[in-house]
Every structure is written in structure tokens, then in C-alpha cells.
Amino acid sequence: MAQNRSTLMDPPIEDLLDKVDSKFTLVALASRRARQVNSYYNSLGEGLGVVVPPQVASLSGKPLSIAFEEVAAGKATYSRPDPEEEAALAAEAALAAEAALAEQAGIAAEPGLVAVEGADDALAQTEPTD
Hints:
Blueprint: H1 13-19, H2 23-42, H3 63-73, H4 83-105, E1 113-115, E2 123-125
Antiparallel strand pairs: 1-2
Helix pairs in contact: 2-3
């Protein structure tokens, strides 16, 4: 039996916006999850099981409607990375890349030391840039 809906948008947009911090976040979260749900339905016959199936029982079979219902139920969530953690990870990645390049060139990797072109295995001290 069909369920009576009070509005065309079910769940209401106000309920969805209470779950996120902005309209942009809601659109990004729902669209990403809708793509995952669509991918799940497309890969059913292949038996891959890589994508998480829909987490709510939905009246609609449309991926975007299912994604909105998951957001309203609190099943689809988001998290924002901390800018300080991102900066620390980027710095670690840069040091690791520098060490890998130095190792390939046969130079001992020390932070703040860079090989100078034209000099035979000479190292020059450089000031770290922030």
C-alpha cells in the first residue's frame, strides 16, 4: 500500500539540512552516496561486493532518493579533516618524497639538505620554507 506523503520532497529538506552544515555538503554527500548505490545495483550480477548496499528500506528505487533517506536516517555521514592534520601529513609526505629521491641518487637523506647540481656529491644547507 502506498504511503501518504505530505510534500513532494520526502524526507523534507529542513530535516536533511539539520544533519549537515551546509547545502553544498548535503549535495556532495548525497551525490557521492547515490553514485555508490547506483554502482552497487549495477554490479549485483557480478558478485563483486565492493560497494556498500543501501542502508535503508526505501519506497523509491532511485539512487538519489535512497541517498537522501540515508542522510535523514543518519546512515550516511561526513567528516571534515582538520587543517593542521592535513598540513602535518603533507609535510611528512614531502619529507618522505625527498628522502626517496635522495636514496635513489645515493645521497644520505637529512632534512634541510638538498643536492646542488654541478657539484660532485656536494650538499648545500637550505632554509626550510613554510
